Amino acid sequence: xxxxxxxxxxxxxxxxxxxxxxxxxxxxxxxxxxxxxxxxxxxxxxxxxxxxxxxxxxxxxxxxxxxxxxxxxxxxxxxxxxxxxxxxxxxxxxxxxxxxxxxxxxxxxxxxxxxxxxxxxxxxxxxxxxxxxxxxxxxxxxxxxxxxxxxxxxxxxxxxxxxxxxxxxxxxxxxxxxxxxxxxxxxxxxxxxxxxxxxxxxxxxxxxxxxxxxxxxxxxxxxxxxxxxxxxxxxxxxxxxxxxxxxxxxxxxxxxxxxxxxxxxxxxxxxxxxxxxxxxxxxxxxxxxxxxxxxxxxxxxxxxxxxxxxxxxxxxxxxxxxxxxxxxxxxxxxxxxxxxxxxxxxxxxxxxxxxxxxxxxxxxxxxxxxxxxxxxxxxxxxxxxxxxx
Length: 389
Ligand SMILES: Nc1nc2c(ncn2[C@@H]2O[C@H](COP(=O)(O)OP(=O)(O)OP(=O)(O)O)[C@@H](O)[C@H]2O)c(=O)[nH]1
Ligand SMILES: [Mg+2]
Description:
Blueprint: E1 4-7, E2 14-22, H1 26-33, E3 34-36, E4 58-64, E5 67-76, E6 82-89, H2 91-103, E7 107-108, H3 111-114, H4 120-127, H5 134-141, H6 147-160, H7 165-184, H8 186-193, E8 197-201, H9 208-216, E9 234-240, E10 243-249, H10 259-274, E11 277-283, H11 284-288, E12 305-310, E13 325-326, H12 335-345, H13 361-371, H14 376-387
Parallel strand pairs: 1-7, 8-10, 8-11, 11-12, 12-13
Antiparallel strand pairs: 1-2, 2-6, 3-4, 4-5, 5-6, 9-10
């Protein structure tokens, strides 16, 4: 295997960063650039280098020629195939050490690739730090030993039963159906782990920004009884029924007054194009003469548009159209129903985080490979790889 190295701590300035070298040449490569303190020599001049004992910390210097790049603490594992260099955490230092390693023939890569997960437990560990909500954490941690692990093991057992040919064909059929069902959960996992974009759109002055503030629980957007208040769009990460979403508030739509407003509307349209869901906010007046022609061709397909009528507190006993959800952003009315509707449109109506969830591309690939196999043994082999040994 080629010797590889990666920064395994987060990118950016920090007190300490760790660069890990993995592969048969890891120890030898370290020897070319690292000199333990006390020897007073540069790497080229060390002829009688004391052997670095495994699993011991060595304080010393990383050299580029005869120039000291950084004072570091290095440690090599028993086989000498993994070396950690704990250096100072300035990006220039870490980059320089990685460049030095690269010049010595080491392939510089990402920490993910350095430790490519081959089991679900590894994958959970890798994905968990990116989970933005409690529900995402619950869903991930539920996948091992239960959840997806449990389901995969159960499917493998079904395939491994030593029975007649006919039964084996039947088992494969039932496992295929179960796999297809599992594969459909991957879209949900992607949304759970990478917040979808929800855009607030609608005419001016209907209360989009007031609604944005109500959903985020902060006074982020300026609101005013002046049409055209919002210009640049804003984005906030909001939790909606356990799901993290990027909520975007945009400029209200009307015939633009000036060039700035024209630009604001163009930017709002750009966001509409990126939306996983658009909350189209109207008020009762706009609803009555709503022709929405100025949106023609700008809104995404109808399944991605949720129309709400705001300012219901001003409506008194006026008749309500059952096609729409009536809310009051100002008085906090029906916002729970709105949250439910948003979660529902994004596929999370009855989401149970303890149910099996396919949450990585590797799992998806292996499940697809299992689907394509024609023997129970080959299918179960792919399933085994998902769980890992
Ligand atoms: N009564 C009542 N007033 C509301 C409600 N929501 C917003 N408003 C008021 O309506 C006015 C406009 O609200 P904004 O939130 O600024 O409206 P907007 O849609 O963001 O407007 P633009 O940024 O101009 O497009 C403000 O005076 C709000 O206080 C509501 O539910 N009920
Ligand atoms: Mg606004």
